[in-house]
Design goal:
By secondary structure, the chain is mainly α. Helices cover about 65% and strands about 0% of the residues.
Length: about 400
């Protein structure tokens, strides 16, 4: 039986969907400022193109495979193919509002990968990669986390720490291992060409993340307010944690570090936003900022050319938030936790939730890595993933799009 629609909840979910969509051009500016000037349009295009392609996939089959009720927790069915009958969903918001909100999650997830592969992907191959990645990696993972067996097992993920950030972070590593390092990596300086773009992108991401997290409860209520405050506080302390460790290790607190730390805090609080309160978001954000900065040493030691630190910020940040939720989940913030006996270890719970969080992170991470690596190797063997040496030297703007960001 359908519930009466709530106009306040509907308005908030629609606004949240728009905020999450705004995050993708924000991500484009965040990444675009960090690449060299000859690649900025290539980066902007890769992110903006994800909106068109992934939205189409979501409408045709994605929503149905994630939220269609197939009777199992592994994959949905085709009941909502081409968005048929979504108005029949239970709840106090229109089915299309939920479709729109979840669509924007699907859009930004593969776009996160572009930061690791910056400066060296063929545009056509990139399009094929994110299209099949959305179908083969994001859709199954989102089903398991939001509407499937990992949720039923007891793992918590309020807004996508595992399905989005861990999945995309691991995928970024897999693609980097296939395509290799940029020409001159480690020898030729490759500084950001426009840090003001990155600051602008950070501000847009921070703003949009309020919809990302506070909209995930699908209601304009006290839990949304708590999630919004948690989101802001974690970003704030994420910035502080990154900058303190950066100053301690390198002697300077950089603008890029402030932006990266804020995003690390936002990533870490994503799975936790609707399940924690009090001092917890401050601790979660600060821990993520500090740990994600230290994680930069991993790529240096392994000689991985993760161009814009996707692995450190999104993979490590996602893992930090997912695991810390096993410590800080609080039934006083979200009574649904008490119903599932899933409080965090620091709030009277057992190791059960921490174990479930670990399993969810491991399963989604391993699945994403294996499938992404196989997909990237297949595309590389058939179409070629990486541009040629001359095209890389020329830059993606000219070699892939015959345009330049700056003229005169």
């Amino acid at each position: 039986m359908l519930l009466a629609l709530d106009s306040g909840n509907t308005a908030w979910v629609l606004i949240s969907a728009a905020l999450v969509l705004f995050m993708t051009p924000g991500l484009a500016f965040f990444y675009g400022g960090m690449v060299r000037s000859k690649n900025v349009l290539g980066m902007l295009m890769q992110n903006m193109f994800a909106i068109g392609l992934v939205s189409t996939i979501w409408a045709v089959v994605g929503f149905s495979l994630v939220f269609g009720d197939s009777g199992n927790g592994w994959i949905g069915n085709f009941d909502f193919l081409f968005l048929t009958d979504v108005t029949n969903l239970d709840g106090d918001i229109p089915g299309m509002a939920f479709v729109a909100f979840q669509m924007m999650f699907a859009v930004i997830t593969p776009a996160l990968i572009t930061g690791a592969t910056a400066d060296r992907l063929k545009f056509g191959s990139y399009a094929v990669l994110i299209g099949f990645w959305s179908l083969l990696v994001y859709i199954p993972g989102a089903k398991w986390v939001f509407n499937g067996w990992l949720l039923e097992m007891g793992a918590l993920d309020f807004a996508g720490g595992t399905a989005i950030h861990i999945s995309a972070g691991v995928a970024a590593l897999a693609v980097v291992l296939v395509i290799g390092n940029r020409k001159g990596h480690g020898d030729v300086p490759m500084p950001p060409h426009n840090l003001p773009f990155t600051v602008l992108g950070t501000g847009i991401l921070w703003f949009g993340w309020f919809g990302f997290n506070a909209g995930s409860g699908l209601a304009a209520d006290g839990l949304a307010a708590q999630a919004l405050v948690n989101t802001h506080l974690a970003a704030s302390t994420g910035m502080l944690g990154w900058l303190l460790v950066e100053r301690w290790k390198g002697g300077n607190a950089t603008v890029l570090g402030a932006c990266s730390g804020a995003v690390a805090g936002l990533v870490a609080v994503t799975p936790c936003a609707g399940f924690v309160g009090g001092a917890s978001p401050l601790i979660i954000g600060f821990s993520a900022g500090a740990l994600c900065f230290l994680a930069l040493q991993i790529k240096e030691r392994m000689n991985w050319d993760d161009s814009l630190d996707v692995i450190a910020v999104h993979l490590i940040g996602g893992i930090v938030g997912t695991l810390l939720l096993g410590l800080f989940a609080d039934a006083a913030v979200n009574p649904a936790i008490a119903e599932d006996s899933s409080e965090g270890l620091f709030f009277g719970g057992s190791f059960e939730l921490l174990k479930d969080q670990f399993v969810a992170a491991l399963v989604v991470g391993v699945f994403s890595f294996v499938v992404t690596y196989a997909l990237a190797k297949t595309i590389d063997a058939t179409m070629g993933l990486r541009v040629g040496e001359d095209a890389e030297y020329q830059g993606l703007d000219q070699s892939q799009h015959a345009e330049s960001a700056y003229t005169g």
